[in-house]
Amino acid sequence: MNEETILDQALNGELPDDLLKSMLSDDTRRAEFAVQVRTDAALRALLEPAQSTDALTHAILASVKTASEAKISERILATTRPRKSWASRPVRWLGMELPRWATAAAVLAIGGVIGGATWPGFVRQYELAAVIEARTGKPFTLSTGLPAKAKMAAVLTVAQPVQTVAHSVNEQALPTAKPSAPQLHFDDLMAQAKVSSSPPMGQPIDTTPAPLPTPAAAAPPPAQTTAVVAAPTPPPPMLLTTYARPTEGERIDFEKHVLPILERACFDCHSAKLKKPKGGIRFDDLATIRTKSRTDNLLFPHKPTKSSLYISIAKPMGDSDIMPPAKEGKPLPADEIALIEKWIEQGADFGDWTSARAKQVPINTTSEVVDAANALATAQRIDELVGKGLREHNQAPNGLTDDATFLRRISLDLVGRIPTSDEAQHFLKAKEPDKRSRLVNDLLASNGHVSHMFNYWCDLLRAKDALADDVEGQPYLTWIKRSVRDNVPYDQWAREMLSPSGFGWKAPAAGYYLRDGDNRQTNIEVTATLFLGTQIACAQCHDHPYDKWTRKDYHTFLAWTSGIQASSADASVGSVSGGMIKEAAGRYDRLAMGVKNYDRQAKYRKLSDAVETLQRAAGDGGLVNGAGMPAILPADYQYDDGTPGEALAPAVLFGTQPIATTNQSTADAFAAWVTSPSNPRFSLTLANRLWAKLFGLPFAGPVDQVQDIADCDNPDLAQYLVNVVRESKYDVRQVLRILCLTQAYQCAASAPPSSGDEAYHFPGPIVRRLSAEQVWDSMMALAVKELDQNLDFEVAGTETLEAVTQATKTSDVTTAARKIIAAQEREMKADARRTRKFGDMAVEFAGGTLERASELPQPTPNGHFLRMFGQGNRDFINDSWRQATVPQALLMLNSDFFDYVARSGSPLNEATKRSSGVSDIVRSVFLAVLTREPSKAEIAACLDTLGETRNPKALARTLLTTAEFAFQK
Amino acid sequence: MNTDLSRRHFVTSLAKTCLGVSLVPPTSMAFALNAPRNSPGSKAKHVIYLFMRGGMSHVDTFDTKPNAPAGVQGPVRTIKTKAPDLRLSGYFPKLADEAKNIALVNSLSHTQGAHELGAYKVLTGYEQSPAMNHPALGSYVARHLPTEGATLPPYIRLGDLAGHPGSGFMDARYAPVPVTDPNKGIEHTKLQKGDSASAMRKRTSIADKLNSDFLNRYNMPDVKAHADMYADAVKLMTSKDLDAFDLSQEKGNVRSDYGDGSFGQGLLVARRLIERGTKFVEVELSGWDTHDNNFSQVEAGAKIVDDAVSTLMLDLAARGLLDSTLIVLTTEFGRSPNITGSGRNHHPLAFSAMIAGGGVKGGQHYGKTDASGHRVIENPATILDFHATLGALMGVDPADAFPGPGGGQFSIYGGTGAKRGAVMQALV
């Protein structure tokens, strides 16, 4: 066998073991073989980047994986340590002797194939550039910044070959151990790579041993063969684009260092370009990465070994769960794995990056002028933008709804109840072409709208009758209702809540803080969610695992509210000192202990409580809004960037740091920052909520966790809606008006996408179940005439409180306390009477009061109709629920409640009384309950089933049990 | 040289000769199912599931730390129990007497530090996600266990559905039926005075027609659930077992032994419900979010639990039902061992749960946390591990899985994919 054949067979793996052994025992032959292997590997990698290099990749990867990164470095270092005559001696690399240039080739090959994590660093670190220059005869530079999805072939750019004397000298100094060995010639490789000539599979690659090519003799494209000795101008450097690597001590930057790796190695299966990304994981979108981090620990900041991203890429070769999977792509080289590990250790910081798409998506509506006062024109512009989004997905709007559906929908959305029969008849008969916009205006101006939006905001604000520490919530609730009635601009309203001033019931906005008492953490978390559409709770104890907020961010943000202090519990009332009031309360306590009679005991206890309540409500109780204090990092602060107990100035989460002016409290400055028109999240969060309220789904991701505009499904629309909110000067009613006037809103409804992952492009609103309040208020509309007129905007007991602030002696306070107790007792007696009268229904409808939900206890007690249909506890932001349950069904089927609703004199009863003839009765009941005409078949079915009983109540009751009633379409 | 190399040979030789490694993949990586080794022989047929809303402090209840550094344990004592290997908080003197039938899992942890998300995780085994609504544990049990002959719903929750995942992607038949007042039970189960079964049938036939039209137009799970609930409601009206809620039938001091509050009375109702065939009864006790006044609040909550659960265990044992009834107590997360002010903050990193009765191997702690209860250091367990263990105690066949959205198969043991619970063998 000649040498050639032996080599071939060895490369084919066909060489018998004994021959292989003997070949490898010979230094020269082994070196030659090694050169062959390396060169061939590099050639194949470079020439067939797109196809069938998997096996080769495995081979080279194995070389990387068999040793630790440190070991590889060490070996490369050993092979390449600059020596006197750096290129002259063959050295060992991975157990093989290789000349330094071959090492460079191997490094390049590894880099090219596996993605370049290893090589640029090594090239730099071990000064391989000089070697490559020597071999190729070209100036060689590494440049950073990788185009997306760059493949090996695309990153190699050829420059004109220039031969210099110095290079020639080096050339001659190169080892010439085996002239017959084909050598890596970068000109050729790169020229071929550039024209991306992936030879078809199986096409032989001519690597026949050739004479040692010299740069001058290389065969670059003809146009480039202008070899000039000592070129007059410096030649353009050979541009070899690579992945950026952080320099020593540099913090790893996601976009610069990590994203290119993900783009290359992960995007084929995990990006938005796939309809169904594998495992639902998309790396091109921060929101999805966050979600997957929460659900599957995709990324766990500071904890690579808990992050499934790291776990998957760091699995041993051959593990069936390794990522990228063997059959899909090339596993990551060790240094890329190490880089990702380090990035996670540093906290998995994404910087300002939000999505791959965000960089590419131009937003055309950023500076588009909105004339918010012109609702119709604004609505039309929204329709254009929605339509554009639909067209991009080959969809069209659903088509306008009929008037009856529109009436029912908009009544539920704007006044929170179904329309009455009278309202329906009036609207359906009306002939004006603009009757829909007239209706929108009428509803927005109505009391019903105030009632409905009061429920809406109470749910979000978690407003309730009893605030923390049993502070009376009435003043706060009434203030919310009045603010809705007066349509106070949303930004002003938010500022009043975030920076309240004044005392007791006179500063009802203080309820926003008093809701949470001393639990300021919960309060700031709610502020972030409610007004900024972001959730920060996790960062209270550690860096947020699924968002960018660090624990330090949390505590410096929390510090903004540190100037808000509850006034002391022993505040004075009028000129009666706190001590005297305490003494009075104590006296009642002692009296209670001294008597045996249970009723008297109870009465004294209540008096004691009432005195203390008065002290809280009428005394200097409330909030002091003063200068803030620095954030103190908690005692168990665990990160390097701060020490426990360290004091830090308040800081906002993003944007410009506000500075309190001399006449501003810290909370003032904070409130101004939150509500600033230049704070995009404030406007976006409101726009998203109001849109979701009317359309059933948000446009900017979850209402509690909004996406950046560029990441929205329809960025132009999202940006425009933000402009609308801002240009309307936060006029919530005007924004609702604009949205209701859109064709998009007035189109027929669709069922929601079956998966939450699926984007909805708004061909119309979404079909959805009514809220508890909508069901209740709709029943009330059937039961009570002029229902919406009975709204209460006053705080009960204000006079008593007002009087007690003038107290001069203790008895003034105790007298007021007695008055309060007396009022309480009267109410309890009335309750007891109602309970006797209505029996079980007493709880079901709040002691027999047929009023809108906004007028009932906030929230209603357990067992109330509203609670059975999902009214929230008001413990968490919008903790109401909308599932169908068996107890609801039983209530609708069998409770006496319905009889009470349909009693004589009720609008339902009146509406059916006017009808004559059975078909007419059916029609009137359908109109009253479902706001539509029955079909002929339905009339027939009703007549057939109900017979001649002419029982409109039975039919109404039946319709109330249908899905059509329980849902809004 | 021959340039038409066989790629495989090329690579193999390259790897073998140059790199000294074999490219042959590791043979038969055994990714064995986490199926229980001894699934049959289990006897639990019912679950009474107690959820401590707010985040029960583990270091003050089931994972006390008598040797912790200062500033952790506060006034809480650790007491011996009737089981030599089980220690309990001094707040549980009565449970200490029943310790032989109590196993504590001290090594639970997850990553959800907010109430809603923590509760979702513990109740479902999964993190909340926009992609999928996961069913609560009770829905799995209702789905897995046969309910022949039962006329009551298989899954009843004493309390409303606020902050509850319900039956998630599963059919609404397996959703919890909320009963807000245990003393009243499920209300309106009787026809109204003057109404008749035949009149109701006529009415429901009209509603059925309208519902099917609506469902045809809007084929949504919510719409289907609506109609299903009415069908279930009508069925329930004929149940002979509705007296489960009539606590006046209890004799002697039974009612007061359970405790007067809605939790104690709820446990009594739960016992009556499982006697009548309900598979899963959930009772909630709130008041555990002890950011302030941790010790007084925990003491108060623990007393309610101690009275009610010990009474339930004795009551079930006396009726021969303890071995077939799992009493499970969980919470959304633990609380930080370090005291902040007068309270403790949320701590999902380590927390505890209890399994009593139902054939669990009692008298033991499973898993271990460090000296202050901060981190799990032995036998870490996920929520899915916990659910899988309950499944094994109920003898649920690991192969009994049903399809979820997106083609996955789900069961009480978890999904078919990576997220599958491992049974804690020491407990079954």
Give your account of this protein's structure:
The complex is a heterodimer of chains A (969) and B (428). With 969 residues, chain A is an all-alpha fold. In chain A, helix 6 runs antiparallel to helix 7 (118-125) and helix 35 runs antiparallel to helix 36. The longest helix of chain A is centred in the C-terminal third of the chain and has 29 residues, at 810-838. The termini of chain A are far apart. The relative contact order of chain A is 0.07. The model of chain A is unreliable at 42-69, 79-101, 112-118 and 143-242 (pLDDT under 50). By secondary structure, chain B is an alpha/beta fold. Chain B is 30% helix and 15% strand. Chain B has helices spanning 7-19, 93-97, 115-124, 137-144, 197-217, 221-236, 254-258, 262-275, 294-318, 383-393; strands at 46-52, 78-80, 87-89, 102-108, 155-158, 177-179, 280-285, 325-331, 334-335, 346-347, 351-357, 364-366, 368-369, 376-378, 402-403, 409-411, 414-415. In chain B, strands 6-5-7-1-8-11-4-12 form an eight-stranded mixed sheet, with helices on both faces. In chain B, strands 15-16-17 form a three-stranded antiparallel sheet. The termini of chain B are far apart. Chains A and B meet through helix 1, helix 3, helix 4, helix 13 and strand 9 of A and helix 1, helix 3, strand 6, helix 5 and helix 6 of B.
Q: Round the Cα radius of gyration of chain A to an integer and report it.
A: 38 Å
**Shape field of chain A:** globular
Helix/sheet category of chain B: alpha/beta
* SSE string of chain B, helices as H and strands as E: HEEEHEHHEEHHHHEHEEEEEEEHEEE
Return the average pLDDT of chain A rounded to an integer.
77
Strand arrangement, largest sheet of chain A? 1-2
Counted by DSSP, the helix tally of chain A is 45
Report the structural category of chain A: mainly alpha
| Helix coverage percent of chain A | 40-55%
- Order of neighbouring strands in the sheet with most strands of chain B: 6-5-7-1-8-11-4-12
Query: Low-confidence parts of chain A, pLDDT < 50 over ≥5 residues?
Result: 42-69, 79-101, 112-118, 143-242
The fraction of residues assigned to DSSP E strands of chain A is under 5%
Which overall shape of chain B is indicated by the principal axes computed on the Cα atoms? globular
Q: Over all CA atoms, what is the radius of gyration of chain B?
A: 25 Å
